[in-house]
Amino acid sequence: MDKKIIVETQDLTKRYDGATVVDHLNLHIAEKEIFGLLGPNGAGKTTTILMLLGLTEPASGIAQIYGFNSTREPIKVKRLVGYLPEKVGFYDNLTARENLKFIAELNNIGGAEAESRINEVLAAVNISEVAELPVGKFSRGMKQRLGMADVLIKKPKVAILDEPTAGLDPEGIDQVLDLIANLPQMGTTVVLSSHRLHEVQRVCHSIGILAKGKMVIEGSLQHLGREAFAGGRYRIEVETTEPSPQLVDIVKGISGVISVETKGNLLVISTDSDLRAEISKAVVQSNFPLIQMKVQEFSLDDIYMKYFHEG
């Protein structure tokens, strides 16, 4: 069953002073997905986010969230979206709780419901103990946590997060990433813009890489790795003991197997789909020990560097 696409752009384009910063961008993000938006500085990530939020108008093309046009229906979009900018701003003379109460009121959340949600999000981002302190006394990391609480308080359908772990210590990063990873279970779709590739790989289901305003590649990490380094094919490695030419011929005879190479005790098999079950059965039935089997995986660093240099 196909996933419902709820964040989408069609040929989205933005120009500043004659320079094209987002160039006919087509973006597709499924409901309850964590999507990583990647690219070097100046690639167009922040401008794309601002157009999705209806905070800047495109030169041409369309951005929409849950079917609402971000340019023509920005209020409807903002009701659905929580946004954490790279530089979070609060009223420094107010406490964390007072800042969140103000945000709740702006979103028509009041009374006991507001207090309940405030306590819930303060605990979620681990700043309950400093809730009564003026935000002006907060470190950057504490303000970043408060920013996440700000996003979560209205229980958004979509959370757009721009560098959400900036300024956090390793423990804080782990806590925020765990929080982000759980958002789809709460019904929230996440757009995560970050340059920290290992963090993106940890939580994102799919990614898009921007370079010079264009989407270079978009899809799941597994799919992009195969496209980048194996021509879209699976690469399956089987460790056995002294594989014979007969075993190689048997594996080659499996439907969907494209090629088989031997490297010592390894069979390196290229296939058009995940054929691990069929291959393991063939090896065992041929009376060879199946010591280990794995599908070759590619890191996000590998994928990013390949497409960044090409872009």
Topology (SSEs and partners):
Blueprint: E1 5-16, E2 19-30, E3 34-38, H1 45-52, E4 60-65, E5 68-69, H2 74-80, E6 81-84, H3 96-106, H4 111-124, H5 140-152, E7 158-162, H6 170-182, E8 189-193, H7 197-203, E9 206-211, E10 214-220, H8 221-229, E11 234-239, H9 245-252, E12 257-263, E13 266-271, H10 276-285, E14 292-295, H11 300-310
Parallel strand pairs: 3-8, 3-9, 6-7, 7-8
Antiparallel strand pairs: 1-2, 1-4, 4-5, 9-10, 11-13, 11-14, 12-13
Helix pairs in contact: 3-4, 4-5, 8-11
In short:
The protein is α/β, with parallel strands linked by helices. It has helices spanning 45-52, 74-80, 96-106, 111-124, 140-152, 170-182, 197-203, 221-229, 245-252, 276-285, 300-310; strands at 5-16, 19-30, 34-38, 60-65, 68-69, 81-84, 158-162, 189-193, 206-211, 214-220, 234-239, 257-263, 266-271, 292-295.
Quick one: how many beta strands?
14
Biggest pleated sheet: 6 strands, mixed
- Largest sheet strand order: 6-7-8-3-9-10
Overall mean pLDDT: 89
Contiguous uncertain segments of 5+ residues: none
Number of helices: 11
Q: Per the principal axes of the C-alpha atoms, what is the gross shape?
A: elongated
The Cα radius of gyration reads 24 Å
Using the coordinates shown, work out and report the CATH topology of the largest domain. Rossmann fold
What is the assigned CATH homologous superfamily of the largest domain? P-loop containing nucleotide triphosphate hydrolases
| CATH architecture annotation of the largest domain | 3-Layer(aba) Sandwich
Cα end-to-end separation: 33 Å
SSE order, one letter for each helix or strand: EEEHEEHEHHHEHEHEEHEHEEHEH
Q: Which range does the strand content fall in?
A: 25-35%
Fraction of helical residues: 25-40%
| Count of distinct structural domains | 2
CATH class of the largest domain: Alpha Beta
Which structural class do the helices and strands define?
Answer: alpha/beta
